[in-house]
User: Fold these one by one.
Assistant:
Number 1:
Amino acid sequence: MATTSEKPLRKDAERNRRRILDAAAELFAERGLAVTLNDIAHHADVGVGTVYRRFPDKDLLIDALFEERVHELLDLAEQSLECQDAWQGLVEFLEGSLELQARDRGLKQLLLGTPQGCAKVGGVRERIFPIVSALLVRAREEGRVRADVEPGDLAAAQWMVGAILDYSREVRPELWRRYLHVLLRGLSAEATVHDPLPVAALGPQELDSVMSSGALARR
Amino acid sequence: MATTSEKPLRKDAERNRRRILDAAAELFAERGLAVTLNDIAHHADVGVGTVYRRFPDKDLLIDALFEERVHELLDLAEQSLECQDAWQGLVEFLEGSLELQARDRGLKQLLLGTPQGCAKVGGVRERIFPIVSALLVRAREEGRVRADVEPGDLAAAQWMVGAILDYSREVRPELWRRYLHVLLRGLSAEATVHDPLPVAALGPQELDSVMSSGALARR
DNA sequence: CGAAAGTGGATAACGACTATCGACTTCAGC
DNA sequence: GCTGAAGTCGATAGTCGTTATCCACTTTCG
């Protein structure tokens, strides 16, 4: 079970493999997982056949690509658990996680969407959940979070902020911070007035452009 | 410019028109705007051709169907503005609006998604915005809402709770109430601890089922 | 009763994507 | 430098789901 033994790829083949991976990373990040293998091939300056030869199944490509990125998230969770102040840790985790998602549409879809295939990635997600739950429980015990907040609420929070990401990514990539803040305030035990909301709300014309940009597809 | 004059439809034609409208209402509500005219035809026990004859363009059908429903929303907004307590009015509006959306996927998509075509519906949406903005401004003046909250935040709130709707509709249709509550608490001037969160958070097994149900499509 | 209006649903036209194949190019080792 | 194994390219065939048309047939209404 060598980690990455297989056969030693020929030099040009290896170069193409990298090109494909790089192109895929770029396209997934900016356009989401829906990009076709054709798109990726063209973007990598490589024939479609080459892509199919190397990654017969798109899920294999996704797995290969995102394994690393997803582990970043796992590290983040573990590191946040170290934090002496559990509330602080929770905030750090959510901010970090959403920051990654803001920078990579594909990652967001992988994390919050359906797992289908992509075994490795799905597995990591399952390992993150208990860690973050522990973080939440601790923050609750420390009296920083409402007593009736539960782990499921953290998933919901990511869904909600994820929606902001989808709608506003083009117009105001940083808008999600504002609503993460609102949400955290809503979940905290004593919601103080102090710290102002980060980043301004969308103005009327920005709202229009979001609405008509078809951020949410339809038919 | 008679409102609905045209030609007086033949009796059977009129009956079919109604059937189509009814079937469309049902399917849009439970499956969203993406249902095909074929689906609608079959569900209405009518030939596909009949549907196309009556509504050459799907947008026309949507317009015809949702004009009324969207006006309900406009009424709701106006009525909420009457409320002496602006905060109360705001809550009523958001709850009412989201309740409608929870019951009708199509309506939700129409309100929060792209307007493309569907002139009438889009117009009403534009009339609602200033009303709700006024409501917000008043609630802010009354000191119930944080001073830095803006009208755009209400749109964002609907996007966020709308995401909860999309994810959890099958598993727990009422879950959105919990997160509207959290959000409102986050936006309110003094977030008191009192009133407990309505409806429980999703448990681990429910989360799994949401994740794997592919609530959010991908490829 | 007959003309006008309306109907059904097989099927053509489409568009987007997935996947294959085989003539051709490149590499690595002798 | 030659050779054959490894690798490449991209036109194109196959699928799938949807939109839209057409016309022989049925229904309505005066």
Number 2:
Amino acid sequence: MNEEPPKSPSSGVEPKEGDAEQSTEKRNSEAESTSEVASTQEAMAPSLEPDKKEDAFTDSVELASGEASEGAKALAGEPPMDWFEPLEDDDEAESWDLADADQHFNGKKDPEEESLAGESEKSGSVASGERTFKKIYQLNVHRRKRSHPDEGWVDWPALGEGWRRKEVVRRSGSSVGQKDVYYLSPQGDRVRSRVELASVLEGILDLSFFEYKTGKFYNGDAPLPRGVRNRGKRKMRERSSSESSMMERGEGADTPDSHHRLTPSLSSKVSNTNQTLIPQNFPGTPNYGPQDEDAIKEDKIKLPHIASSRPLPSINGEIGSEDTCLICAKCGISFTGTWYDKQRKKPCCPSCWATKTKEHPMVRFRKWIPCGQCVACHNTVNCGQCANCKHGLQSPESRKRICRKRKCICPIRKGPGTRNFIQQRPLNDAPDLFEDTMSFQNEVIDSEAPSYKNSDTEDFSVNVDVDDEDDLSTDDDDDWHKKRKRRSCGKCKACLCRKDCGTCDFCIDKPKFGGSNKKRQKCRLRQCQRQAMRHLLPFQLGQAEYGTPDGMMPVGRPRPHYTYSRKTFSKKSRAPPLGLEFSDEEDDSSLNAMNWTSEPTSKLTYELNYRHQQSSIQMNNLDVGLRNGLPDRIPNTSNHNSSQLDQIGRWDGEKSSTGKDGENHTGEEVEEELPMITRIFSLADNPVGTGVDTENQLLKLLEALRSSALPILWYAIVVEGPQLQLIQCAKQSSMTDTMVLIDPGFCYQVTVQKQPLLLTHPLYDDHPTHLTSVTEVVNLLLDLERYMVCQGLPPQDLSANKGPIILERASTCDFLVKKNVSICINCRALCGQ
DNA sequence: GCCAACGTTGGC
DNA sequence: GCCAACGTTGGC
């Protein structure tokens, strides 16, 4: 807050071209608003008396910068407020303060606008004066404010009556500043992309000339190429002054964002040394173009101190040219060099870059340089085994990562924007390019991966003190990627599987399966077996959260305990003060270790699993033609899931070499995708012998089923008989009344509401007569999930029956019908339908 | 640009 | 404490 607050609306960045008219309007409305009620005046106070509101602004900058104002602007016909860039840390408060001030200077005090802003995304309304500021302050304590789903929407008649639109600016991450546009149909369909929009409006509205981002039709004219706009359109743009729209077009170099970062009081003109990207034309001149805004803005830009006079490296490692002058999209200062943000869209001055390096993991900035003297630096051979080497092998197109065995173990801390000293990095230190706690969390998890432990020469850092904030990461500056990789080890079958089961609740939720996209979670059967959140795993794997009957250790990570609101730390604690926050991460370490290295109670299954896993990997590498030669013993299937399972079955069959049940041979082409069955039981591995053995085999099948990723909420128990009983535990499932009973001979029977499913039911046609392996069981369960219980028929005279309605069924009711049928043909016939 | 899905949080 | 919901973001 060293910057002098804006003095008046007119002293800000008013000169913005094209906005003159708008500004006038704004001022008018502002003037009108001043005659409004006191509360409104108070609401306007921030802009009029910035000094008094300075602190509040600082604290509220994040919220005030949210979509709230954006929504208000949009509603007011103004373009999005692109200076609403993500603000995650206090260090940015200053610039945000400026942005905020600018925001107010731009006439956002219209009461109507403000009231609307109050409805917008971030609830960052400044419409209620001090109370609002207090609220904002309180809200700002949180790292992220959850927006109300109904906020920020503006009517969008262009798509028809009832349509609404919302713009959301990304506040963090590598795509920070990017703007996402959402539409809401009159029916409540939330549209997130053009594709979805086209889907919703199919047959209703032709979107051929519709520009999704702007939400406008362009009258049949071909969209102009990037960066080229006709005057008319540009006029609109100018009015909008949307920097994000420019950023989206890769025009960040002259993003208006910088304009909004100006310090009004600092009116010293930008250096005349500005070159290519600093336009010299002004409004009113014939050549007045997009850069005009920059020119105007530059008039207000204080020429900053260039952080470094040395050639500045770009993120590409290229040497920046001194004669390239850019405007930092973050703070608005001009600078020389070729520094851009990670997305290479927006210029970013060295100072901001360095700051963001500390503040945000998505912006990378090298602070550590190799010492050039240590053993690692002298090593010229990649180990080929470490995570970085493997990354290179797996993703050769991605940026090269230094082999861990070649990465300097004692780099020197140095670089523009960093602390002005050189220090020797501790042996177990690492480039603190990702100082977020996440980094440590990732490391902890990653360290659990055997490959890491076995290959990373720097793994001694794995056990470093959690409190040591700079010494947590052993990875290079790509590690921030891992934040979103925490749930995936990338090695287990579930991670390797690419196909959704299509039947679990998460799959059903997916738009591609006709879902509403509310859960937005990965298929349960594809949840990582090591690192997935426990509650996301298939019930069998995650059941330990509720207590495993067989005492097996729980699988998966427990739910995190988000307690930001109670924390005094501005960011996620590096050292959980009470050992509560994020303790799950630590728990995970031991948890995973227990789950995947010991499992004393399931040694058999573990071994089976391990063996199968190895085999599967080998198999996955086989040519399909080779696999086609493998014996089959799995029945015909008609879906991906079955096919995937089929693959397991084939493998089981191959291992067994018994070729049992040749009746199941299908010759169906094996899919390349790996199934995600974690543990395999098959009679092939355990040949049936005596009756006692058979019973044991049934128990082993039970054990294998319990340790496998069964379809969601199917559970295996043993009942009197003994019989192995598979039940659907989900009350919401259409199979909640359905059971599969497997007798010691592995013959099975499906029952629906305790009534046996007739053997003539087509369900049986697709499955073997004996369920001898996990594969076959899962296959059947998956198939069952495609059915529902026949709804039967309501009684003829409902009025006379005041008791529970008892549905009637035909005596030949099929019980199970395809979900799109609901009533079987026999019941339909009963009522003459 | 689109989409999958991760991480977070408000509501219960 | 759980979980549905969804903002967000990395990958393609």
